[in-house]
């Protein structure tokens, strides 16, 4: 089954939406993990929700680069990562180092002692000299240090902080589907579906009953409906009284950006002494990709060539006249 991403706007209202259903792409992510024993259901749900959320957030911005959503903390899940490219190619992985108990939620998985964080990184494809990726970090607890159990709530808070736009995000995942619904208030300026409104009314519009009503309707979507129903049925059930304009859907796919050259660059960054030490101890270096399971091997000759090729690319030393 093909994964789907659908964008839509509510005609005449300052509200837009997106609905993603990852099927084939999500199942491929899980398949790549099978050799390592797979994920516990609770971790699988968290990672699936992250992957759906990352797809929605990447599609919500105009950015030529990767959107990387990370969750890390002090629970049995030390790190979970979902990465989505501008063409909606995606990958995801999680590192589990402790015991996951049945029914564990976000706080027990990542945020046992309120040390959990969610980081959203925007990494440009063509960085300028000295340019660094943009990163925003939000805690996994509220203003009163109460623990947040819903990933959608965490990301709604982040998007309100970063974009100053009210957002409602509903997420769900199981072993077959990772899905999400995003509803967002639009800024008035520059939005075609707000023609006829006055800019001075923007603040009032942002708090108006239209967005609140639609966000409330979105909140009635049940987990089993988001996972089990097709996009047409979901939109009709939720918004049958609204006039919606839908756009050409996108097709998210699984893809991994790992390569021999990227692994070589990583080893090169360790330095000659460290690489030679590993070779001396183990006889070779084997590196496995956490995202897709691909294996990259380097024997002593391969390892030496990493630094030989680097030296051959250096500009010639200046001559003394």
Amino- and carboxy-terminal Cα gap? 68 Å
Count of DSSP strands: 13
Can you tell me the CATH architecture of the largest domain?
Answer: 3-Layer(bab) Sandwich
| Annotation field: number of helices | 11
CATH homologous superfamily descriptor of the largest domain? Hsp33 domain
Low-pLDDT residue spans: 190-200, 311-315, 317-321
What's the overall average pLDDT, rounded? 87
The major pleated sheet works out as:
6 strands, mixed
Strand order of the largest sheet: 7-6-3-4-5-11
Number of structurally distinct domains: 2
**What proportion strand?**
25-35%
The gross shape turns out to be globular
Order of helices and strands: EEHHEEEHEEHEEHHHHEEHHEEH
Helix proportion of residues, in percent?
25-40%
| Name of the CATH class of the largest domain | Alpha Beta
The CATH topology assignment of the largest domain is Hsp33 domain
Secondary structural class:
alpha+beta
Nearest-angstrom radius of gyration?
23 Å
Overview of the structural elements:
The chain has 321 residues and is of the alpha+beta class. The chain has two domains: 4-254, 3-Layer(bab) Sandwich (Hsp33 domain), CATH 3.55.30.10; 260-312, HSP33 redox switch-like (CBS domain Like, Alpha-Beta Complex). Helix content is 35%, strand content 25%. The protein contains eleven helices and 13 strands. It has a six-stranded mixed sheet, with helices on one face. Strands 8-9-2-1-10 form a five-stranded antiparallel sheet, with helices on both faces. Helix 9 (260-270) crosses helix 11 (300-312) and helix 10 runs antiparallel to helix 11. The longest helix is centred in the first third of the chain and has 19 residues, at 41-59. It is globular and about 70 Å long.
């Amino acid at each position: 089954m093909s994964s789907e991403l659908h964008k839509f706007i509510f005609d005449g209202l300052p509200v837009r939406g997106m609905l993603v259903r990852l099927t084939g792409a999500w199942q491929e992510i899980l398949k790549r993990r099978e050799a390592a024993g797979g994920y516990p259901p609770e971790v699988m749900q968290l990672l699936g929700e992250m992957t759906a959320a990352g797809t929605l957030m990447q599609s919500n911005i105009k950015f030529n680069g990767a959107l990387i959503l990370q969750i890390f903390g002090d629970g049995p899940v030390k790190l979970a990562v979902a990465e989505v490219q501008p063409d909606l190619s995606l990958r995801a992985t999680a590192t589990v180092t402790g015991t996951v108990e049945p029914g564990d939620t976000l706080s027990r998985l990542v945020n046992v002692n309120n040390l959990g964080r969610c980081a959203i990184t925007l990494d440009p494809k063509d960085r300028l000299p000295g340019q660094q990726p943009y990163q925003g970090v939000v805690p996994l607890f509220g203003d009163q240090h109460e623990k947040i159990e819903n990933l959608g709530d965490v990301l709604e808070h982040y998007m309100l902080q970063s974009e100053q736009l009210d957002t409602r995000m509903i997420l769900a995942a199981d072993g077959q589907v990772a899905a999400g619904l995003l509803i967002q208030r639009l800024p008035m300026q520059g939005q075609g579906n707000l023609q006829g409104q006055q800019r001075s009314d923007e603040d009032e519009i942002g708090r108006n009953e239209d967005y609140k009503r639609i966000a409330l309707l979105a909140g009635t979507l049940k987990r089993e409906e988001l996972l089990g129903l097709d996009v047409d049925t979901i939109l009709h059930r939720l918004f049958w009284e609204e006039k919606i304009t839908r756009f050409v859907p996108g097709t998210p796919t699984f893809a991994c950006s790992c390569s021999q050259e990227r692994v070589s660059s990583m080893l090169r960054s360790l330095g000659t002494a460290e690489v030679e030490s590993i070779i001396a101890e183990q006889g070779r270096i084997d590196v496995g990709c956490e995202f897709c399971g691909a294996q990259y091997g380097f024997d002593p000759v391969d390892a030496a060539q990493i630094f030989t090729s680097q030296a051959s690319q250096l500009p010639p030393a200046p001559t003394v006249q």
